[in-house]
Amino acid sequence: EYQAALQIASEHAVTSDGTAIEVAANIGSLADAKKAVELGAEGVGLLRTEFLYLDRITAPTEDEQTEIYTDILQAMGPDRPVIIRTLDVGGDKPLAYLPLPAEENPFLGERGIRVGINRPSILRTQIRALLRSAKAGKLRVMLPMIGSLDEFRAVKKLMDDESANLNTSVELGIMIEVPSAALMAQELAREAAFFSIGTNDLTQYTLAMDRGHPRMASRIDGLHPAVLRMIAMTCKGAAAEQRWTGVCGGLASDLDAIPLLLGLGVNELSVSVPTLPLVKAKVRQLDITRCRKLASEALNREDGAQVRALLKQWQEQE
Ligand code: PEP
Ligand code: MG
Fold first, then answer.
1. Is 42 a pocket residue for ligand 1 (Cβ < 6 Å)?
2. Over the Cα atoms of the chain, what is R_g?
3. Which domain of life is it from (predicted)?
4. pLDDT tens per residue across span 114-143
5. Which of 291, 303, 302 is nearest to 265 (CA)?
């Protein structure tokens, strides 16, 4: 029975009306990659590279990084795309080998790609390692916390330089997790190869609520219409430039939210490894036209609770 379930999990996730939705995995290690393949991942939608080095007190070298990226690409095989995100530290994510100065507002300070832009040698080392591992599989590189075109362009330039040095190239995409990026989606889509929405941070920054704050926990809701409008705007901006949009934040692993995400125009879902088979099964039940109707209704609700009520009601009549 387990084997039969794995067989179903390994088949593609296509909606009832024939729309293919890529269901990929969020991973943080080589072991996760192997487990993801077993559970039917069609790729990796997010490798959090900071997770590879949490126990380090010295920075990983270019060779060390090349080796682990190569191993992960090989584990995923030649046909599954693997999105590797550059180091995302700062805010709630400390890294022993990269101590950052204390700040008044760490979530609004040096965080994500800003750390790399301010320390180009660390970013350059990682980008070189990524480029050197590219031939081992189907690599895509993704930047966290992009908030403006000039941040994207600064990193793109660094990457173009190293691509020329190493005589190779890979697609460069960005996370959409800051409201300014969602608002500028179409302009960013002209230059970035793809988008993946980080709903954890996008919710935090849209609602101005700390994602880890115990007294905000019940109110920080990725289904708030304000967040949904950010997602809709992102998908629209991407589609206008023939780019695809994924979601790699926690909302993609929320089975109730999936019809809504597809209705908003999301093309790829990157989810926690254990939920892969459930997410694929969910996608197969859905009809995109109906999902779009649901999404347009949800965008006009007043708060997250109303959206949840709508989803529940929709579920019951399906
Ligand atoms: C997110 O913000 O939704 C995301 C996927 O990135 P992280 O959780 O690693 O900040
Ligand atoms: Mg994030």
1. no
2. 19
3. Bacteria
4. 999 999 999 999 999 999 999 999 999 999
5. 291
Distance 276 CA to ligand 2 centre (A): 20
Which tokens hold the place of 146? 């992009």
Token pair in block for residue 220: 């920080």
Q: Strand 44-48 to strand 268-272: parallel, antiparallel, or no bridges (unpaired)?
A: unpaired
Q: What is the ipTM of this complex?
A: 0.99
Q: For residue 198, how far is its CA from the centre of ligand 1 (angstroms)?
A: 5
Ligand nearest to the CA of 196: 1
Whether 198 is in the pocket of ligand 1, judged by its Cβ within 6 Å, is yes
- Residue 46 CA: which ligand 1 atom is closest? 5
308 burial type by CB count under 10 A (0-12 exposed, 13-18 middle, 19+ buried)? middle
The ligand 1 atom nearest the CA atom of 250: 3
| Three-state DSSP state, 22 | strand
The answer to whether residues 10 and 51 touch, using CB atoms and an 8 Å cutoff, is no
Burial 154-180 (b: 16+ CB within 10 A, else e): bbbebbeebbeeeeeebebbbbbbbbe
d(CA 284, CA 96): 43
For residue 108, the cross-strand partners are none
Structure tokens belonging to residue 51: 């997770």
Q: What distance in Å separates the CA atoms of residue 42 and residue 22, rounded to the nearest whole number? A: 6
- 250 vs 244: CA distance, rounded Å: 19
Residues 148-159: tens digit of each pLDDT = 999 999 999 999
